[in-house]
Amino acid sequence: MSVRTEVTAPAMGVTALGLRKAYGDKVVLDGVDLQVPEGTVFALLGPNGAGKTTTVQILSTLIAADAGHAQVAGHMLADNPDGVRSSIGVTGQFAAVDGLLTGEENLLLMADLQHLSRREGKLRAVELLDRFELTEAAGKMASTYSGGMRRKLDLAMTLVGEPSLIFLDEPTTGLDPRSRRNLWEIIRNLVDDGVTIFLTTQYLEEADQLADKIAVLDGGRIVAEGTAEELKRLVPGGHIRLHFADQSRLDAAVHALGQGVRNDESLTLEIHSEASVPALRYLLDQLDYADVEAASVTVHTPDLDDVFLALTGRPNSQKESVR
Fold it and tell me: What pLDDT does residue 319 have?
């Protein structure tokens, strides 16, 4: 069976096998395999320079891979790049909005580029302005828009051609928390309508909130893949922290439980466990049996920050570079 025969599913999502890309001696992608089912959100995480943007550029036909095969939105990348381009939308890290045009004019310009009739373009612009809550600002120059409004307009422009798959390359960079959450809701609505989302992000919370599946890219390779919960289970480090009102209660708890790391300065006892509800219930029952009361209890389970640090050896604190 040939490689090309293997790249057959999912028909309208993304499947990639063995993607490679190098710039001189610098290998950016080193045999990347991806599978993104139709109608889902896929998040690609990775540290600075990992190759996230390069992956998007290859899959969206902006640059060619040195090796490997991919199928995007039902079209083989190498055989039918025009078919890929007609089926996808791309929103980059910086909004591609013309500040000298109004919001409506930006949408009408995109409609012209999509070869819609004037009537179709006008109807589509009105629909998208309403959908993204930009109707009141439709006649204002885009240069007067806030960051969140420009992001919404940029995504609305991407949707003029009704793509079945959208690449969002760090779409919420620079947005305040409220604007980010508004954009998350828009993304969820798009998926509800059957659109496939391929997301790269520097915000681990964003991947946790949105993605059906997450892949971690490091050194040009996929080092882990799964749901957010599956990835979190790869990393040990869950613990329950008990805080006590005074030294005597801390001493009694240490004696009763016979485990944990005590901190006399903070009057806490940290119990390493899976931090599950049964584990927490067991500890509290043990304290009740010994007639010891904890002042407060906190539970820590590994999050995507822990996963990222464990898999890549560094925190996710930098933005993606050009490549």
Answer: 40
